[in-house]
Amino acid sequence: MAGERHSSSCYLDERTFRHCCQVFLQHSVTIQDGWSWEEIKGADEGFMRKTVLIPVRSDTSHHHDVCSVQTENTESLTEELQADVEDEAAGVQAVCESPVVLRYEYHVVYSSSYQIPVLYFRVSTLDGRSVSLEEVWSNVHPNYRQRLRQEPWDTLTQQEHPLLGQPFFMLHPCRTEEFMKPALDLAQSQHKRLNYIVTWLSVVGPVVGLDVPLSYITAVSAPD
Among 21, 67, 96, 174, which one carries the catalytic annotation? Predict the structure, then answer.
């Protein structure tokens, strides 16, 4: 994506990015939505951050094998032991069907190269195990997954966080202009104020499990 600016373009400078974030964060405090601003020590840089616990469907392949073994073993047991084993098998089945809770940590980072915000995130289990890109893909809603995999929507990748130097997943910003420019053009034609971060995050966030409450759209206006 070129760095060139157009009339009613989808690009923004870092000052505007920070101002939009500041207004966004003020509303987050009001509704207790959990967003914060993280400064990088020793540098005049920072990003918005939010952590969310999300229940997802567990990988049942291993659990299914365990349940199958439990069921098959009951055939060779005496009647007096079968009731106890059936209770245990029921417990295993409950584990199979219960959701797994994952910790999603989202970062909204300004990209000076693309002159737009980029959504970085990492995912782990509650015991700290990092989740692979394949597992992340499996938890993307099927509607979004199909669209992302279609060229050139294959934009969910793992890269180094530009400010932290750690591996993060990211939604590549190559398609930002496609949905932001029409929104900005419409707002301009209707003489409406629009907060870039709210509009942008409302589109990209749900792809990876991040919902933006509707109150942001009505309460947060563009910076002066």
Answer: 174
